[in-house]
């Protein structure tokens, strides 16, 4: 995943244009079934309109001495996203309103966009801006904003059931690592993981699209299908650093997918921070919108807005995002998928407790003062009532789902319980 | 309100008699639609019987030197409420069982009544009683207890719907300010407020009656109508001092009217004290009685029983009850009425988030690090699912109802949401 | 109860054999209607098989000097329960694997059994074992393990309704006091108590059986009846010491029987320790097993596993179990029975508050500053809505059920309320 992220780093991603196209084509090499779609500028989608397509050739700024101040060849963040083209000379005073920097983070180039209002501009480190000499600056911003296309992709991995799990990420952020090369990279790995499963209970739908407008377009084009089939969703974002685990729950706050997520994070991470719905800021805003209503969670490492390098050039591969960070980000959602695939409703086959000793599951000499694993086996068994799910048993006993599932597999192997798959409510075959 | 209270101070209120009549007639000057009713002594109402009518001409006590000790012309509290008439001479030892004072509050005249057992008596400051010389006292209590009437009043302010909100207060307390001139005065102001509303969703029924027996009589005479129509009630009592806000919730403790009250008090007062049902002591005892079951709350300033001057002559206009205190008492219930009138169920008109920027509701330059009011607008919008009410959104977001309503009006004005009135369950047109 | 325990002390109880038979015959003297049943070794019951019957004649161990080390005539615990017979000479090294002691409790003989794997052995104090000299030991274990019977007993005390309350205890523990002579002794006392009631709402089923295998057999033989009729159960164990009160709740944790138990223990004991379902270790494991599903609680004094003398010879009558301890253990479940028998659903007969004063239930001089018992009477009355039970009123008001019931009896005597019996859900006549 880390190598893929390094490879994708250079593409000048935005909400439209060749940066998105190149990124999706590279992912299609890994995931040949990925379908790349395009939608015309000007198309009405929900309350929005697909904007013109923006492409960057190069943007540069020279100081009065002819020295380069900003050059997108060195960092894509140097140009305001969706900047208008501009070539000419301006003196420093005229230039200033077109410059963006962060006084409180003097070494960071900020990430600034202006999708829906035309303007040109550069972003740069505040310590550089502070030392700019008076005089005449040369500006050369070569961008094109024109009737074109918005590009996105999806990949459907079919399961036994028509019920779908949506896994969404976004491909519109240029050179930043945690927010957001980590999302597409981890989502790709999850797609490979799901494809490699020997069997799948559910159908998985992966969406790689620009944030907000891409999700809105996707919902607009697929609303009937999504509302009929999708039972839950994962938004994959900020999954690459190794400093924290975070959960953004559903609007409901206690949907089954929230319970799954909390069980995973509690036992994967020990500690994790749970945010409130009001702190949402990604595509759950669209997928969980009222009347769309897909229950969606984000299992993140350090959440957007909450880490110091957020939306600046300091959000780097290596310093912020690490191979371990990406692996943990992958694990969190991977385990949720495993729970959805393996959660069951167990029913006892014995009336009264099973006799563990004749199956070699209990020390035959009953001193009775200490009992650990047999007691736990019977704790799990005591809830095998044909109603309670393995996940619910895990939550009741303060155990990881996987610990409960392991014990249930022992009980099943010894013909003590029968397991039925636990599906979503309103599941359909 | 403060001036009205001063004017009503002098009438010798009790549960029957001219004190009540004069008080209600004065209120009818302000509220000409107020209907004054009378019911005969001896009428059976529920488990009770309307008592004889009691009227006080004057009650006086002279010490052995001929000096006045008690005179109802100086303070109505000097006579035991419903005292029998008595004229004669008694020595101090005989007099003592007829005197009532509070050793722990030596300057206060206590408020004592004996509605259902005939006795005569005086109330006086303990410091005065302590210095009474031995000798012969002259008593002249001129009262009449005779077959007569119990007087009460009501006022119905019709709304669009037949659903009623009951607002009840009591008019049986003589010269005391917070408990209870504040109630009738604030209830009158609420009646004027409701009458002046350009339109009303609900019908408002105001009842001014003596406490307990009056409420019981009112329920007895109107039970079918009350049970069919009244959805919620406010008991207006102890609403005049400026030292606290208090809530007595419904017996259910989590009826919609409790949620309305808590939202109001939390945002009006910051802090308020919530009492338990077991600490009730006013006419919710009748209106919320089992099988009557009107959900009723009291939004009070300092609750009866809980302030030091309670039921004594120290409960004065000016020292205890202030114009600001009355205004706050009015505001609390007024805001509850406003919530009932304006609560709505919003439904989004857009699929996916609305585009705020093209409506001028969002800064077009999205640096994304800080977002305050647009985020709050979208927080509210994210719950506009056609099920959740504005009040429920406010509670979920920790906001005042009025803050949410303001944002919903913006969203409605921009055609982003549609609002349906939120009614009570089982509402009827 | 203490005398009965002393009398039963000597019988060499195990899960089968004459020790159980003698114990049950002695109880039948007290409870002539007790039915003693037997079931053949080898019978399949649930997942289990009735084991061979085990009887102990005597077991002795002599040291190389001919001195007695262990003799079951002095303490039944000296032999491993279900020990195979063995006569012969072994040297100390060979003997050691057959000895059981507790290094951390050097004066205690541990209680060890080996029901389902044949082995022979002795249990002894660690301080004795430590000083055993090298040399040849003589072993004489006279036991018989043969095709025979498992013995248990039940007693049904019929009530007005077919609904049953199960009271279960176990009779398989040899010479130990709290765990478990206290259970059979207290259960017998409860049976006498229930038989002596002038009328019974419910039918009471008492079961005296060996733990685990006895309960499993009982369920196997009576499953249809138990599942159709039994509404709740009490497991009587560890009810003899005077150091604590403990509750093991149902698996559900909030069944009505849990509420009954908590109300009793809170007001009987002030403090009690509530354990979790995962800390269960007695016959609720069978009766509350999934698909059997009888809601069962244990109201204990010091819980099994939790007191230092547990499962050793230190668990003695007199030091651990006391007459006061047994009395408290009896009281706890006795009061639960009383609640089940007397819980009611009250409905007010008055519309609006009842007039207490004309019934002598209220001081007629209403100074209004202090009201205690009349207020409590009205608090209880205020919930008499024909839906809420006396127990629910008690829980809501933080009162003991018996306090509420006393007030309800006053209200009923004064024709203020009507009481309907509160039954279990799905009750059948």
Give an account of the 3D structure.
Chain A has 429 residues and is an alpha/beta fold. The first copy, chain A, has three domains: 2-51 and 149-341, 3-Layer(aba) Sandwich (Aminopeptidase), CATH 3.40.630.10; 53-146, Glucose Oxidase, domain 1 (3-Layer(bba) Sandwich); 344-421, Arc Repressor Mutant, subunit A, CATH 1.10.10. Helices cover 30% and strands 22% of the residues of chain A. Chain A contains twelve helices and 18 strands. Chain A has helices spanning 2-8, 18-30, 92-95, 126-130, 182-196, 213-229, 256-269, 284-287, 323-342, 373-381, 390-397, 401-413, and strands spanning 35-40, 44-45, 48-49, 53-62, 68-71, 86-91, 99-100, 122-123, 136-146, 149-157, 164-170, 203-209, 230-235, 246-248, 273-274, 296-300, 344-348, 417-421. In chain A, the strands form five sheets. In chain A, strands 1-10-12-11-13-16-14-15 form an eight-stranded mixed beta sheet, with helices on both faces. A four-stranded antiparallel beta sheet of chain A has the order 5-4-9-6. The first copy, chain A, has a two-stranded antiparallel sheet with strand order 2-3. In chain A, strand 2 and strand 3 (48-49) form a beta hairpin. In chain A, helix 11 (390-397) packs across helix 12. The longest helix of chain A has 20 residues, at 323-342. Chain A is elongated, with a radius of gyration of 26 Å. The A-B interface holds A 45-48, 100, 110-117, 119, 212, 215-216, 219-220, 223, 251, 277-278, 280, 285-286, 288-293, 305, 310-311 and B 347-348, 350-355, 357-358, 364-369, 375, 378-379, 381-386, 397, 416.
